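As agreed, record copied across for absentees:
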Amino acid sequence: MARESFGIGNVRVRAGASRNLELPITRLVTGADVSLPVRVIHGREGGPTVWVDAAVHGDEVVGVEVIRQVMAGLDPRAFRGTLIAVPIVNVLGFMNGDRYLPDRRDLNRSFPGSARGSLASRIAHLFMQEVVAKCEVGIDLHTGSDRRSNLPQVRADLDDERTRGLAVAFAAPVMLHARVRDGSLRHAARERGATVLLYEAGENLRFDDDAIDAGVAGVRRVLAALGMTDPLDEPAPEPSVECRTSGWVRARRTGILDLDVRLGQRVTDGERLGALVDSFGKTLRLVHANRDGIVIGRTEAPLVNSGDAIVHIAS
């Protein structure tokens, strides 16, 4: 018996096919419609229903390219299950190169949203109803925030057996046990019973080849682990370094930052990471690690104020 078609929005996607569609969000003052771009691959054979999304923060572009490359390599006739890809969730922020929506709300603090709430709340509600509610697994793709870069890493509830298994399958350099934040997509989706991985890698507003390559490989491995695609023909990846806690080293003076550490570098408590200097090169304050661990994030801003986050270390 042929597999049933898959319904989303006002369309249905037949088995063994893919389809691009738009979910209406709002209308601009010019009268132009703004919609959520979605692509569905509905496999010929049964299997899990999974979503992958990017650009919940409009300036985080790495995930958009990750999704493009992943989707380009999938054949719906050989696919098992259903994949919903939403490469740009915060459409208005993405068009403006802005992390937030025009009303300055953070979409990733607006879930699960409301059909009658703010613009952010309505987008969150639409995403929950049309995407999350249909899925059992989700992969949420992010990058570092403004002027920060992140080592490719998966953040997830590693105490949950299924979540941990998928994080291991993703095989990012680091997998970090991370608490959920109220209002985040990960929190709202987990409350609906979905298993969610959050991928962090690279910088905002910039394509980073290492971040993209690790993201594409990780998503493909998860799809294979779920039985949606055939096992990948690749050497066994290096296992992720599991970390349970993390924290930022913060500037203790205002100055020009000269960092000596790179992403992925292992450091020890008290190790020198760099220095804060003035415009003539005089050292104002040395920067030291506050724990043993691996560098999973760092600021790329040369000018920092006292209290600014400088280096993110996971233990």
